[in-house]
UniProtKB/TrEMBL annotation:
PROSITE patterns: RESPONSE_REGULATORY (PS50110), SIGMA54_INTERACT_2 (PS00676), SIGMA54_INTERACT_3 (PS00688), SIGMA54_INTERACT_4 (PS50045). GO terms for biological process: phosphorelay signal transduction system; regulation of DNA-templated transcription. The lineage of its organism: Bacteria, Pseudomonadati, Pseudomonadota, Gammaproteobacteria, Alteromonadales. The keyword Transcription regulation applies. This is Sigma-54-dependent Fis family transcriptional regulator. The keyword Phosphoprotein applies. Gene3D superfamilies: 1.10.8.60, 3.40.50.2300, Homeodomain-like (1.10.10.60), P-loop containing nucleotide triphosphate hydrolases (3.40.50.300). It comes from Thalassotalea marina. It comes from the Bacteria.
Length: 419
C-alpha cells in the first residue's frame, strides 16, 4: 500500500487528511514536527509528502516549511512533495514549486485536486488486491478455512473472534475472495485506530462543515464498500452512539452522512472482528445486545498460534521465502516458543531473522526468541559450557548453540573467552 506522509502541527488537519486518504486506500503516516517528518522519510518507504508551511504555533512566515522541504530533498531528492499553504506563505510556496515541489494548495484545500495530484505522482491504489494466501496445516485451521468458504457463498454477517495477531483480517479477506462479491470492493476499517469523534464520519461520511477540518463532502466506508464487503476490525471499540447507527444500517441498509438529512441506501456485507469478549461487554452495558446478534450470525473463532502448532513451521517458511532454510535448532526454537503475539509476532521474528542471518540457513539465535537459550543464563557462560562439552570444537559447539561458526568466533572475541 502506498505510504503518504502528512506533516502539520494542527491535529484537526491531520485527522481530516488522514480520513480522506484512508478512504482512498492510502496508508497514512503523520508527523507534527520537522524532526518526526525527517525520521519517517529516512526510515519508512514514503512515496509522497503533504506538508504544511509552519509547525510552530504563532509562526506564519513559511520558513519552517521551506527548511523542511530542502532537508527532505537532501534525504530523498526525487520524493514528491505537495505544499499546503495559507495566503501569507504563498510567495514561499511558489518558490518551492520552482525548486521541485509538485504543487501547492491553498487552505482550505480542494479534496479532488489533492487526490488528482497524489494519483498523478504515485499512481492509483484502488487496483484489485491480490488474494491473500492462507497457510493452514493444522486441523483447526483447515476446518476454519472450510467453514469460511462455506459461509462466503451467503450474505450473512460474520463475526471473527480471536486474539490479536492471529490472522482475523486474513480470514475476512478469504471470505470476500470466495464470495459472490469478490469483484467488488473489500473495504477495511480498524476501529481501534480511530479517534472516537471520527468513527461516525469514517463509517458514514460527512458533509462539508460537519466538523472541524471537513472542508469538503466526504464519502464514508459504507458508501465506498457498496456492492462489496466491509470489514470492521476491533468492532468492540465502536461507541454506543455509533453502534445505534450501525445497527440501523445492518437492518435497513440506510444511513445519513454527518451533517445531512439525506438518506443513502447501500448493499454491503459486513464482516467484523474482535479480540474482546462481546458477550461480557453486552452484560456490562458497553455493547448493544441487538447489534451483537446482528453481527454474530456466524462466528468464526480463530485459535491462538500456540494451539495451532502444525501451522508454525509452514508459516515461518512462508514468511522467510524459498531462498532460506530453517536449521533444526531454529525449528525446535520456533516450536518451543509460546507466541503471545501470534502470527504477527512470528512474521516479525522471521523478518528479524532475515536481517541478522549470516547464511541462507537461519539459526535459532537469528530469531531472538527466549527459548533459544536456557532461562536465567547469561550468554557467555552458555558459550563456555558448550565449548567445554565439545572439547573446544567450534563446529559442534556452534551447531548446538544455533550459531554459524563465524558468529560463534565473534562472541568468543567479544567475551574474551580463552582456549
Amino acid at each position: 500500500m502506498t505510504k503518504i506522509l502528512i506533516v502539520d502541527d494542527n491535529p484537526d488537519i491531520l485527522a481530516a487528511l488522514e480520513l480522506l486518504l484512508s478512504l482512498h486506500e492510502y496508508e497514512v503516516i503523520t508527523a507534527n514536527t520537522y524532526k518526526d517528518a525527517l525520521f519517517a522519510v529516512e526510515r519508512l518507504q514514503i512515496s509522497l509528502v503533504i506538508q504544511d508551511m509552519n509547525f510552530s504555533q504563532g509562526l506564519t512566515s513559511g520558513n519552517e516549511g521551506k527548511t523542511l522541504f530542502y532537508q527532505l530533498r537532501q534525504v530523498k531528492p526525487d520524493l514528491p512533495i505537495i505544499l499546503i499553504t495559507a495566503w501569507t506563505q504563498l510567495e514561499t510556496a511558489i518558490e518551492l514549486v520552482k525548486q521541485g515541489a509538485v504543487d501547492y494548495l491553498p487552505k482550505p484545500w480542494n479534496d479532488g485536486k489533492l487526490l488528482e495530484l497524489i494519483s498523478a505522482h504515485v499512481g492509483s491504489t484502488l487496483q484489485k488486491p491480490e488474494p491473500v494466501t492462507l497457510v493452514a496445516e493444522s486441523a483447526a485451521m483447515k476446518n476454519l478455512c472450510q467453514l469460511a468458504e462455506k459461509v462466503a457463498d451467503s450474505d450473512v454477517n460474520v463475526l471473527i473472534t480471536g486474539p490479536n495477531g492471529s490472522g482475523k483480517e486474513k480470514i475476512a479477506d478469504h471470505i470476500h475472495q470466495h464470495s459472490k462479491r469478490k469483484a467488488m470492493p473489500f473495504v477495511k476499517v480498524n476501529m481501534g485506530a480511530l479517534p472516537a469523534q471520527l468513527m461516525e464520519a469514517e463509517l458514514f461520511g460527512a458533509e462539508k462543515g460537519a466538523f472541524t477540518g471537513a472542508n469538503q463532502k466526504r464519502i464514508g466506508r459504507f458508501e465506498a464498500a457498496d456492492g462489496g464487503t466491509l470489514f470492521l476490525d476491533e468492532i468492540g471499540n465502536l461507541p454506543l452512539s455509533g453502534q445505534m447507527k450501525l445497527l440501523r444500517v445492518l437492518q435497513t441498509g440506510e444511513f445519513e452522512r454527518l451533517g445531512s438529512n439525506e438518506t443513502i441506501k447501500v448493499n454491503v456485507r459486513v464482516v467484523s472482528a474482535t479480540n474482546e469478549n462481546l458477550q461480557l461487554a453486552v452484560q456490562q452495558g458497553s455493547f448493544r445486545e441487538d447489534l451483537f446478534y446482528r453481527l454474530n450470525v456466524v462466528n468464526l473463532d480463530l485459535l491462538p498460534l500456540k494451539q495451532r502448532i502444525d501451522d508454525i513451521i509452514p508459516l515461518a517458511k512462508h514468511f522467510i521465502g524459498s531462498e532460506y532454510l530453517l536449521s533444526s535448532q531454529a525449528t525446535a526454537s520456533l516450536l518451543a516458543h509460546q507466541w503471545p503475539g501470534n502470527v504477527r509476532e512470528l512474521e516479525n521474528a522471521c523478518k528479524r531473522a532475515l536481517v541478522f542471518a549470516e547464511s541462507n540457513e537461519l539459526q535459532a539465535i537469528d530469531f531472538n526468541l527466549s527459548e533459544a537459550q536456557p532461562i536465567n543464563r547469561d550468554e557467555k557462560s552458555i558459550i563456555v559450557e558448550t565449548l567445554k562439552k565439545h572439547n573446544g570444537v567450534i563446529k559442534h559447539a556452534a551447531q548446538e548453540l544455533g550459531l554459524s561458526r563465524q558468529a560463534l568466533y565473534r562472541r568468543i572475541e567479544k567475551y574474551q573467552i580463552s582456549e
